[in-house]
Amino acid sequence: MCPALAAVLLALGGCGKDQPARFQPPPGAPTGKETLHQPAKLTSVESAQKDALGRPLRVSCESCHSLRETKPMPSRPEELKEFHQGLQFRHGELACTSCHQASQPRSLHLATGEPLPMTEVVTLCAQCHGPQYRDFKAGAHGGMTGHWDLSRGDRTRNNCVSCHDPHTPKYAGGHPVMPPRNPSTQGGLDTKEAQGHE
User: What is the DSSP letter of 15?
Assistant: First the structure.
């Protein structure tokens, strides 16, 4: 390409590209509201039935617990004889009653004994997981949807149990959707040909 043509194309195509971006106006008054996501698992359990999309149908805890006499909470999940059998529990040295009220298993309690509804799980978790709660309040742990700047709109914060199973809270992590590709086999070269081009 001739230098004169390159200069013309650069002048036409790059015009204004070197200008600094304008900053957005500073946040105004926070008019949006923040809500905390309430996952269905706080008030329901999965059933063996599936919906039209193949997802497990959920059944409200009240469906069974309102029809039965409440039994005292066991110390360990292995003691469950009728419902919730097979529950995996790996949460330190805690017992079921460390978080659940012994006489009302559908509600929680703080270390002081003060009862908490099941939907207040973030308050419960904050007692032992202070650094994570500090980061959660600052927006650095847990994630959210919506607007960071509440002057621009609402936002919904994730709950602890949106990502963590309270009975087995260690984050399981994830795996890539597609396995990594071997670069030596890309573009039609087999391994021997690729080695010959190194």
Answer: T
Predicted structure pTM score: 0.66
Residue 15's pLDDT is what?
A: 55
CB 22 within 8 A of CB 143: no
The DSSP secondary structure of 31-98, one letter per residue, reads -S-EEE---GGGTEEEEEEE-TTSPEEEEEHHHHHTTSPPPPPPSSGGG--SSSTT----BTB--GGG
- Residue 125 — φ and ψ, nearest 5°? -65, -35
pLDDT, tens only, 74-92: 767 777 777 776 677 778 8
Q: How many CB atoms lie within 10 A of CB 35?
A: 11
The amino acid sitting at 182 is N
> Cα separation of 128 and 72, whole Å?
24
Query: In angstroms, rounded to a whole number, what is the distance separating the alpha carbons of residues 32 and 68?
Result: 43
pLDDT in tens, 82-128: 777 667 777 888 888 888 888 887 889 999 999 999 999 999 999 99
| Greatest Cα pair distance in the chain | 89
CA-closest candidate to residue 25, choices 185, 149, 163? 149
